[in-house]
Amino acid sequence: MDFAPSERAADLTARVAEFMAEEIAPVEPGYHRDLADLRRSGDPWQPLSVLEELKAKARARGLWNLFLPREHAGDYAVRFGTDGGEGLSNVDYAPLAELMGRSAIAPLVFNCNAPDTGNMEVLLRYGSPEQRREWLEPLLDGRIRSAFTMTEPDVASSDATNMEATAVVDGDEVVVNGRKWWSTGVGHPDCQVLVFMGLTDPEEDRHRRHSMVLVPRHAPGVKVERMLDTMGVHDEPLGHGEVSFTDVRVPVANIISGPGEAFAIAQGRLGPGRVHHCMRLIGLAELALELGCTRALERSAFGKPLANLGGNRERIAEARIAIDQARLLVLHAAWKLDVGGPLNALSEVSQIKVAVPAMAQKVIDMAMQLHGGGGLSSDFPLAGAWTAARALRLADGPDEVHRGVVARLELGKYGAAR
Amino acid sequence: MDFAPSERAADLTARVAEFMAEEIAPVEPGYHRDLADLRRSGDPWQPLSVLEELKAKARARGLWNLFLPREHAGDYAVRFGTDGGEGLSNVDYAPLAELMGRSAIAPLVFNCNAPDTGNMEVLLRYGSPEQRREWLEPLLDGRIRSAFTMTEPDVASSDATNMEATAVVDGDEVVVNGRKWWSTGVGHPDCQVLVFMGLTDPEEDRHRRHSMVLVPRHAPGVKVERMLDTMGVHDEPLGHGEVSFTDVRVPVANIISGPGEAFAIAQGRLGPGRVHHCMRLIGLAELALELGCTRALERSAFGKPLANLGGNRERIAEARIAIDQARLLVLHAAWKLDVGGPLNALSEVSQIKVAVPAMAQKVIDMAMQLHGGGGLSSDFPLAGAWTAARALRLADGPDEVHRGVVARLELGKYGAAR
Amino acid sequence: MDFAPSERAADLTARVAEFMAEEIAPVEPGYHRDLADLRRSGDPWQPLSVLEELKAKARARGLWNLFLPREHAGDYAVRFGTDGGEGLSNVDYAPLAELMGRSAIAPLVFNCNAPDTGNMEVLLRYGSPEQRREWLEPLLDGRIRSAFTMTEPDVASSDATNMEATAVVDGDEVVVNGRKWWSTGVGHPDCQVLVFMGLTDPEEDRHRRHSMVLVPRHAPGVKVERMLDTMGVHDEPLGHGEVSFTDVRVPVANIISGPGEAFAIAQGRLGPGRVHHCMRLIGLAELALELGCTRALERSAFGKPLANLGGNRERIAEARIAIDQARLLVLHAAWKLDVGGPLNALSEVSQIKVAVPAMAQKVIDMAMQLHGGGGLSSDFPLAGAWTAARALRLADGPDEVHRGVVARLELGKYGAAR
Amino acid sequence: MDFAPSERAADLTARVAEFMAEEIAPVEPGYHRDLADLRRSGDPWQPLSVLEELKAKARARGLWNLFLPREHAGDYAVRFGTDGGEGLSNVDYAPLAELMGRSAIAPLVFNCNAPDTGNMEVLLRYGSPEQRREWLEPLLDGRIRSAFTMTEPDVASSDATNMEATAVVDGDEVVVNGRKWWSTGVGHPDCQVLVFMGLTDPEEDRHRRHSMVLVPRHAPGVKVERMLDTMGVHDEPLGHGEVSFTDVRVPVANIISGPGEAFAIAQGRLGPGRVHHCMRLIGLAELALELGCTRALERSAFGKPLANLGGNRERIAEARIAIDQARLLVLHAAWKLDVGGPLNALSEVSQIKVAVPAMAQKVIDMAMQLHGGGGLSSDFPLAGAWTAARALRLADGPDEVHRGVVARLELGKYGAAR
After folding, report:
1. Inter-chain residue contact C156 with D299, CB threshold 8 Å
2. Residues A295 and A373: beta-carbon distance below 8 Å
3. Which listed residue, B236, B327, C378, D37, has the most CB atoms within 10 A of its CB?
4. Any idea of the CA torsion for C312, C317, C322, C325, to the nearest 10 degrees?
5. Which Gene3D superfamilies match (chains A, B, C, D) (predicted)?
6. How many B-C residue pairs are in contact by the CB < 8 A criterion?
């Protein structure tokens, strides 16, 4: 057992941290100010040009597509600029995701943001050569963006078999119909492709009925009905959309891995994606703890620094303990994915999905409280971090469903069916 | 001991509920849609006309200024339309505040919204006849609005003695300087007066140094620097402002109750105000539980209504228990205020300020979780309710300070100094 | 709404408090020392003589059988010495139960201890004149004790319909068979009667199958197999027993209220009993908070009284808030029982059963922590109080079952079946 | 980063598990029954002979003194039978401690129980050759036992500088006076030596005033005043004693590492000891989860296995998550100790001391609840496990003090003094 990072992880961690300090930190406050101005008067969905400049710089330093999974990266890491020319293991990538999580724009800058990373992984693992050429390469290049459309407004989508949208094969076409929401990324003007999940054959076995289809964003019949807010925040320029699909026809070759394969693909897609989400949240929680400690030492009330008042020290200690526990749990889940693949880490991946957002929400809440009214405002990244953590208790499956998975596997050890 | 409401409370509760069902509920969704449209393109700070229409209706039915405290209402209840022509006890008003809390606009409609109610109470109890004529009467009439400016951005304002703004007497004028934030209400175009709290005499005893001054909103030197958001929400049309005061000169007669009286006034002001805030939050929590139960019965996953999945029933039970405990605690605090005044209820008022927002936040969070992604969006009032509950853990004094008050009084029973 | 106690409640509260201070407090430490000695070498099941002396004194002052319910007391309150000659309402008795809860022996001293009170209530409400003469009168007289045998070791007894013990009518006898445990009170040498619950007619409707039978403690076939401990504690001299019943024959007249009535009786029995349990726990929690505050002020570490270290003040405040909320919830449930009977207060009674033991456990835990190692030992009443609170999360129905009841009634408001 | 155990750890884990299954599990229930009988009538402080038999078997298989620290074991591992002839790293020993923790007697059987392990470590690291010959060797041999006497009844011992007991050098003797309690191990008839900590020079620097002295258990002036219980449990045959020292004179050579060195020694002693305690608790928590899952599948209520009722599955999932997080935190702390020694792991060691007992208490509580009344009794190891976990929130420093350490080190990163 060895908790030290590999040399490559340590090197990349140092370089990502340096890039963030030198290139992102100086411009990020201005970025948020400009975005706020656009929200008041202008178009916040039009990405600010600084993003493209930062992307170019990151790519020039090899800090590009670092999420590429070691075992599936092939030569894409060479062709699309990942430092070292090969992908990383989950456990090596994890600390980089943590760092990126500290900034609202870093994931985009390093071409490592959700849902594009997950979609790229799907194409890497399951895409046909044509699908990869058409969609994966421009995504790796950072030229286009993508969305993932699975959740539906009209049913409890925590049970994916509830899905009512359809993807019916009709000759050499697939006909796509239905309504999806919380489709992250559809707000971006560069969004060119939607990974759509729908019912193909209701007669099939419960987990073989659905297909995943690549639907061009501007195909006839695709309509972004509105952009949703999460607690008042629209997360421009990616955003979360409600999208209707009306008799959308795409070639049958747009189905990924063939009809009925959607659940098999989703299974493989979600493990690393959840590790990334969780590590980014851990980065946010660390940032919140830093801000909280700093504030607790700088501000005084009743003649003492806040740090020395009431239960603040104990809460700071609890935050440190909670973050460290959560990070170790995620690293361990990442390692399980590395050594045995998604089926080896079903419980672990659901565990982190439950534990980390709740931890982050609590730590950030504590830091907000130390900031007084300021903690509620946009003057600090805390309110936004809090919203992100809260949303993650629902996104990618609500806590309750993941607890159900963990319990089923636990009770299964004692012979329980489900 | 008798937990039944008085006849007057029962009658008014029924009538307020009826008004809300008949007049407010049908128009509120449209109100929020129109406000959202104004946010995207327009001026959300300009109150929608429906508000004035509703105010007129409420007043016509005597559902106006119901917050007026029994013992201080004098003939204002008669002159300004409160049903029955006299004020209410705290314990009788409490269930009305709970009902109003279920709607984002009802408090305004009934002329019972913060911070105007608190400011009116201050003027009732401590204002001179001139101050009451000039400011209280138009407030009771619903013609103008007001703000309370106490919290400062540059110091930990949870310790009010930290305050750096000044209100210096200079002959027959007071000169006001400083910077305040979280001044609720300054965004409203009808806001005509700011109750300003500042340092007058640093040589005086710690709680006799500050004065409360009535500053006209448009006096030279008063500037609303910006409107703050709480977690992305601006709470138009009232809003929370950052306000600078630069050599603002007002007549010395604008000091309420004389120089050095600010802390004495604040003490008396805050008890009922906190009861109101807490009862409104209880209303929000009840609404959230209702929405949660309804959703839990309507939506199904894994072949069962959500209500029958996992821990949902246990969480619904915990929510019911938590709400009922909180309501009883607030009613008891209101009763203590009624029978013995603010000094009789110091611990109780701080207790509810700690217990209720935390309870509401938890209950609303549970209901959000039952709503899935929808719970995060503006499609339901839950996200806004959550923000309101979270903010109340800081507004009017952070939890930690109120716990300090409760502990001081508790340990004082055993002879502890402080 | 009026939170002030009635005159009678206030008077009795003062007198019970006085009796406890003057008569019980001085001898209780010695009582526990003597009991501990008997545990090491002797027979702790033989009640110490001081108990009978205290009972005589309490009775002489009219502080006897105060639990007698107003609406069922009849002339028993006169004949058996209750002050004022009539029973009390639940809401008037509640503060007396709280006081008694502060002492491990007070409930016995005032003839107000479980399970005798519950059994006496059953006989009062449902007993035949003969049953009352034979069992109720000596119980009211304090001459005998009783036990309630319902829970069974071999099935999950949280679902009472699981019960496997039988009470089969055979001519003019009932034949009782089965094994029960957690039969509180069977350890006492004065225990003369067991209220037994068993299956009579499996063909009947689910809640009409069981009967309640009065079984003399020394009837042939009744055997106390062993006395159980709760976390190492045997609660002598009452204790909790495992009891086997083997072909025990008693007259059919020993069935209370007729065959098949057990559930109907249990329903009525448990409301007030749970109010009593909960109020006693609130007394324990108050005692723990007192001890905690005292210790926090007396002991110092790192140069300060414990009260001023870390989060101790905040925890003391949270304890005060939690106790007050819990007390109000129980008083409200007691009032609901008073005004509408058990069926009017189903949710309320289950609510307190969930909320109060958890609250007490937490508050006592906090006080233990303030006492350091001493808090774990028998030097303070905290460890015993903790055990009592923990046990109450299972006794009289586990938390989970009561949450189920609350949720069922809550969801029922929206039309849910169960 | 690699979470796989070393080969040696894996091998020993398998062999310890096998020994426990083959040798300990079959006799442990009988051991507890016999001990319970001795408690009722007999001398529970006289160890049952089965213990010595098991010790001999364990030693014969090399499963002896496995706690011996790699870097200090020297040739003791060879001479006293540790498999492989050398000590283990903390990270390799950790899973063995977890396994041992599942049994109340295993730590004794493997000669790996507290406080002997800690005392042996002190002698290994800081003892003179004579001290090691006299005390360490018989301890490693399992012939004698020891106690650690630090906590005092009259002061808040969470602040060790509060200590009032004295160890005054008088020529070539040390004179020891004072009163200690919670001296674990003094109840055992083989206890031959007490490691005593007392004040030597009040003029010295705060952390240089105290000495650690080896005091023979039967030296004149040493008196075990009484054996303490934790929540009714005496933990025979080791037990926790209150011990008085009255003018006890021992040679000055009995001071470990010289006068004034007590704090320096304590620092080094406690790191590994806390890892051991925590891993044993994790073993108990795992056992509780196993028992809970088994019970949840075996027992039914309301027509379903408990596992499918209410929130039970979610609680089982939360338990799994909590255990795994806690284990990783401890393993990481053990690794930090291995790679950098105690000063490298101050925060980590305090973190686990806070996190693990609280986790264990919660998980065990959940399992108790699933067991109904049985969970409170001695029929299952849960009640005892619960008591052990609760006690560990105070033993070796209360949670609050450890949170203080973690917070101090955290705030120290931002320049805070203390």
Report:
1. yes
2. no
3. B327
4. 180
5. Acyl-CoA dehydrogenase/oxidase, N-terminal domain, Butyryl-CoA Dehydrogenase, subunit A, domain 2, Butyryl-CoA Dehydrogenase, subunit A, domain 3
6. 159
| B146-258 topology per CATH | Butyryl-CoA Dehydrogenase, subunit A; domain 2 (2.40.110)
Q: How far does D297 lie from chain C, in Å, by closest CA? A: 12
Which residues in chain A have Cβ-Cβ distances shorter than 8 Å to D323?
none
Taking only residues 256 to 315 of chain D, the set having a beta carbon closer than 8 angstroms to any beta carbon of chain C reads 299-302, 306, 309-312
- Ranges of residues in chain B with a pLDDT under 50 are none
Is D304 strand, coil or helix? strand
H-state helical runs in C312-381 = 312-340, 346-370
pLDDT in tens, A285-342: 999 999 999 999 999 999 999 999 999 999 999 999 999 999 999 999 999 999 999 9
Closest CA to D148 of D120, D112, D106, D190: D120
Residues of chain B with CATH 1.20.140.10: 263-412
Which H or E run includes D362? Answer: helix D346-370
CA distance B208 to chain C (A): 27
Nearest beta carbon to residue A407 from set D2, D316, D335? D316
Q: Which of C340, C342, C359, C360 is nearest to C350 (CA)?
A: C342
Chain A residues near residue C311 by CB distance under 8 angstroms: 310-311, 313-315
DSSP per-residue string spanning A109-176: HTT--TTHHHHHHHHHHH--HHHIIIIIHHHHTTS-EEEEE---TTS-TTSGGG---EEEEETTEEEE
Are A314 and C310 inside 8 Å of each other by CB? yes
Query: In this structure, how many other beta carbons lie within 10 angstroms of the beta carbon of residue C115?
Result: 24
A310–B378 CB contact, under 8 Å: no
Geometric angle at alpha carbon B390, from B5 and C361, rounded to 5°: 70
Q: Are C414 and B293 in contact (CB under 8 A)?
A: yes
Chain C residues with beta carbon closer than 8 angstroms to that of B307: 407, 411, 416
**Which residue in the set C158, C373, C403 is minimally distant from D372, CB to CB?**
C158
Indicate which of B376, B401, B406 best probes the interface with A, i.e. most A CBs within 10 Å of its own CB.
B376
The mean per-residue pLDDT over the stretch A274-281 comes to 97
Fold assignment, A146-259: Butyryl-CoA Dehydrogenase, subunit A; domain 2 (2.40.110)
Task: Say which CATH superfamily domain D263-412 falls into.
Answer: Butyryl-CoA Dehydrogenase, subunit A, domain 3 (1.20.140.10)
Please tell me the predicted confidence (pLDDT) of residue D161: 87
Report chain D residues whose CB lies below 8 A from the CB of C155.
299
Where does residue A239 fall: left (phi above 0), alpha (psi -120 to 50 degrees), or beta otherwise? left
Distance CA D241, CA D189 (A): 13
Whether D202 contacts chain C with CB within 8 A: no
Lookup: tokens for C13: 């509260």
Quick one: closest CA in A to B381, which residue? A231
Shortest CA gap B312–chain D (Å) = 7
Element spanning D33, H or E = helix D28-40
Q: Domain C7-143 carries which CATH code? A: 1.10.540.10
Nearest to A377 among B162, B228, B306 (CB): B228
Per CATH, the number for D7-142 is: 1.10.540.10
Q: Model pTM? A: 0.97
| B182 in contact with chain A, both atoms CB, cutoff 8 A | yes
Q: Residue C314 in contact with residue B407, Cβ under 8 Å?
A: yes
CB D211, CB D230: distance < 8 Å: no
pLDDT digits (tens, 9 = 90+) for B335-365: 999 999 999 999 999 999 999 999 999 999 9
B 105-134 residues with CB < 8 A to A: none
Radius of gyration for chain D, computed over Cα atoms and rounded to the nearest angstrom: 21
Identify which of A392, A397, A47 has the alpha carbon closest to the alpha carbon of residue A187. Answer: A47
